[in-house]
Amino acid sequence: MTESVVLPAEQQAPLEGVITGEVVRMYQEVAEHPEGEFHFYHGRQAAELFGYERDWLDRAPPGAVASFAGVGNPHLRSRIQPGETVLDLGSGAGLDGIIAAWQVGPLGRVIGLDLNPTMCRKAEAHAAASGVRIACHEGRMEDIPLPDGSGRVSITDIVSAKQLSQSIVNDPKLWAS
């Protein structure tokens, strides 16, 4: 039987700050140097692995594809409709937001949210280069800086079926992927 380690509240806040800092740093690196090597799949290789349509990847700005560092393909099940508003949490370089903007069309709206301001700027620039608009806000998923609303949710993430070793759990660099 494995035991989980729960840190006291006074230790959680500093650890959260370290993890947040590492996440921002890691994705800053992906934004600035997408050709670099990382401990996670990124770029076109990752997008193809997650089942993104090749037509989308060919149509999107090369920088949005190169800096892609997602954890899955939310478009496989999202069924986005023309005119809808889409909130893209963890926008990154904007690939998912651009694809969503193509789907919602001129009457719809895509709002991005990312912890990293560099990624927000890239998402907006990549969207403009592809002829669509994304309004990206810097912020945290736990405290979305927008009014509350309602609607469908489509989430992609990576989940481990195995108990992670303490050395993995304690490594902020591995949290940032």
| Main sheet makeup | 3 strands, parallel
Shape: globular
Overall domain count: 1
The radius of gyration is: 17 Å
User: What is the share of helical residues?
Assistant: 40-55%
- CATH T-level fold name: Rossmann fold
Secondary structure class reads mainly alpha
The CATH architecture is 3-Layer(aba) Sandwich
Can you count the helices? 8
> What is the tally of beta strands?
3
* Percent range for β-strand residues: 5-15%
Strand order of the largest sheet: 1-2-3
Poorly predicted ranges: none
Distance between the termini: 27 Å
**Could you name the CATH class?**
Alpha Beta
The arrangement of helices and strands along the chain is HHHHEHEHEHH
Describe the structure in your own words:
- The chain is mainly alpha-helical.
- The protein has one domain: Rossmann fold (3-Layer(aba) Sandwich).
- The protein contains 8 helices and 3 strands.
- The chain has a 3-stranded parallel β-sheet with strand order 1-2-3, with helices on one face.
- The model has no long low-confidence stretch (mean pLDDT 85).
